[in-house]
Recover the amino acids of this structure.
């Protein structure tokens, strides 16, 4: 019983806190931490392949996952490659299972060797 009361109190406190203070959301904080000016490269589309120019490794998941949460959001790709049609298009192709709206490592590594020029798997 006491636990339930405690949980109710905690929940109430959380709701009150979130409503009362207009503190920036985590998402907002992250966008401050990784502004668009951080752009380090660009993407061009040549035929069926994307040519990704990057200072960092264009074939590594970590390069794009700026906040290291294990998934790549569209904003993270835009932060690195710029806000452009090619960026959206590349994101859409890498996001094989689009329902979650993010690119998971398994999606990334399944697709990147096929569509990014610098990462093409030449062993096949
Ligand atoms: Ca991320
Ligand atoms: Ca996905």
């Amino acid at each position: 019983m006491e636990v339930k009361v405690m949980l109710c109190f905690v929940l109430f406190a959380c709701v009150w806190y979130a409503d009362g203070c207009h503190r920036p959301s985590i998402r907002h904080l992250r966008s401050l931490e990784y502004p668009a000016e951080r752009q380090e490269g660009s993407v061009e589309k040549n035929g069926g392949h994307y040519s990704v120019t990057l200072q960092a490794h264009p074939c590594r998941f970590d390069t794009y996952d700026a906040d290291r949460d294990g998934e790549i959001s569209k904003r993270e790709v835009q932060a690195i490659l710029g806000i452009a049609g090619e960026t959206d298009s590349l994101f859409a192709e890498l996001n094989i299972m689009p329902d979650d709206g993010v690119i998971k490592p398994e999606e990334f590594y399944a697709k990147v060797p096929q569509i990014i020029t610098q990462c093409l798997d030449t062993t096949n």
In short: Residues 18 and 25 are 9 Å apart (CA to CA).
